Amino acid sequence: MEHPTNNNEKNDGLANRLNQECYCITLDRKALNNSLQDQLVNTRNNPLGANELNKLFSATPVFVPKTEIEAMVRIIAAIESTARLPSYQQQVLSWAPNIAAFDPGPIGAFMGYDFHLGSDDPKLIEINTNAGGAFLNVALARAQKHCCRPSEQSVATTKMLDGFEEAVANMFIQEWQRQSATSMPNRIAIVDNEPKSQFMYLEFQLACQLLQAKGIDTVILDPSELNYADGVLTAHSKPIDMIYNRLVDFAFENPNHAVLKSAYLEGAVVVTPNPHAHAIFANKRNLTLLSDTQTLQSWGLGDDDAEYLKKSVPTTRMVTKEDAAELWRTRRQLFFKPVAGYGSKGVYRGSKITRRVFETILNESYIAQTFIPATERSIKIDDVVTTRKVDIRLYTYAGQLLLTAGRIYQGQATNFRTPGGGFAPVFQV
Q1: Residue 285: strand, helix, or coil
Q2: Which top-rank group of organisms is this from (predicted)?
C-alpha cells in the first residue's frame, strides 16, 4: 500500500491503518537463517530447518505508535515503583511460597511486560520474570527488508539493536554483582528441564553464544546435571557461579530441583530470575493489587504512578466460590488465569467456558481479569487476507527498556501454532 502522507493524522490512527492495510513481507528469511547459522556455528551440529523457523517468526511487522511505547515504559516504571513499597512487598510475600522471602539481591534478568493496545491506553496483560524470546527477536529485527515506509525502524529501536549484546552482558554482570563481591562470574549455566527438547532451545544457544563472546564461559544444562557439595555447585566437575534460570518451577518445589534449591538458599550460586523476583513481580495474584490503586496510594504510591496503573491494569480479582454466581453472570467480560500458570496454560476466555470448566476454575487457584481484546493485524497468507491477534512485549532490566517485540497469533491466548504467526518486529510510527 502507499503510505499516508497527511502529517496531521494521529499516530494511533496511522498505526491502525498500517496494521489493517499493509501486507508487506518484511522478513528476509534467508538473511535471518544465515545470521542464526553464523552465530551458532560453534554450538550447533545440524542446520536450522525451515519448519523450525517458520513456527517462530512471522513475516510481517506490527505497527505501534511511538507514544504507546512511551506509555508502556511509563507504566512499567509505575509497577517497579509499586514493587518497592514495603507494604506491597509484605502483602505479595504473604501469599508466595516461603522460599520467596529469601532475597539475595538480584532483581531478575529479562523482565517481560505484555500489553494489548486498546482504543485509548495500553493495557497490561501479564508480567513475566523469565520472559523468553529476546535473543530471537533481536535476530528477527535485524533481518528486515524495506516496508512501505522510508524508515521501518525508529532511531530508538536501531540504538537498542546496536547495543543489545552489551546491554545483555552488563545485565548479567550487574545481577552477579548484586549478590557477589567479585566483578565477574566465571561460568554461567542456562538451566531448564531437558533443554534440548524445549521449544526455545534455539534461544538458549543464542544466549550461550552471546555470553561466550563477552568472555563468560556459558553452558546449557538440565538441573539433573548439577551437583552441590561442600558449598560449591558444580556440573561435570566444573564450578557453576551463576544460573540463568529458565525453569517454570518458580519456587524450586520439584524434587528434581532440590540441588539447585539448596545451593540457592545457601548463597552458593547467583540465580536470575529467582523465586523472590517472581513473587514480587510475576505472581498473577499480584495483579489484584496492581489494579487496586486506592490501596496502593494508602501504602505510599505517588499520584502519577497510581494514575498510570489505574488506566492500564485491568481490574483483577481472586476467584472464590462465594462469588461464583456473580462471576458466572459476568463471565463474558472476564478472562480466567491460573495463579501458578505459565505459557498460557489453563487460561480461559469467559465467553467460551462451559459450566464444567467453570466448576474446575472454582476449585483451583484462579484470578478473573477484565477481558481486554487483543490488537488485530491483517496479513496475507497465499494471497488471502486474514486477521490475526497481536500482543506487545517489552523486555526490561531494572526498569530500562532492552527491546520491544510483537507476537502474532490466533486463538484465546498467545501461541506458536498459528499459520503466519510468531514473533514479529515492532515498527514504531
Answers
A1: helix
A2: Bacteria
